[in-house]
Specification:
The chain is 32% helix and 25% strand. It has three helices and five strands; from the N terminus they run ββαββαβα. Strands 1, 2, 3, 4 and 5 form a five-stranded mixed beta sheet that branches. Strand 2 (15-23), helix 1 and strand 3 form a beta-alpha-beta unit. Helix 1 packs parallel to helix 2 (59-74).
Length: 122
């Protein structure tokens, strides 16, 4: 499977980078280049790496994410991961890097964000 990367501007000038597909030894450089290319054009207040549509990531892909984080940090820009797929969430948790990227909750397709459910009798 290949990788495609969409970029969009969110409210407040936050930039979202949304990869889709597999981030592995053949495609990892594209994630890092997306961050570096964005920072070469300016300094957004934050970069959100939306990982909802990433079906696979290997150690090279995770290394590219860390490199992107470090590049953003040196530039004074915060990079966080949003909506990681369950696979990505698990890989970040196993490697101890979940906190580095803002400790995002995994994305569950079809889930609706709701306030805490009221327990009967509470």
């Amino acid at each position: 499977m290949s990788l495609s990367i969409a970029k969009s501007i969110l409210p407040g000038g936050v930039v979202e980078i949304a990869p889709r597909g597999e981030i592995d030894v053949d495609t990892a450089y594209e994630v890092r280049e997306a961050v570096v290319g964005l920072l070469a054009k300016g300094r957004p207040p934050r970069i959100e790496l939306n990982m909802r549509l990433v079906s696979f990531i290997d150690s090279v892909g995770i290394s590219a994410m860390v490199a992107g984080f470090q590049t953003a940090e040196v530039s004074g820009v915060k990079l966080v991961v949003t909506e990681p797929s369950r696979f990505v969430h698990r890989q970040l948790w196993v490697t101890g890097l979940l906190g580095l990227f803002g400790a995002p909750e995994p994305y569950f397709s079809g889930a609706v964000a709701t306030p805490e459910a009221q327990l009967p009798g509470a």
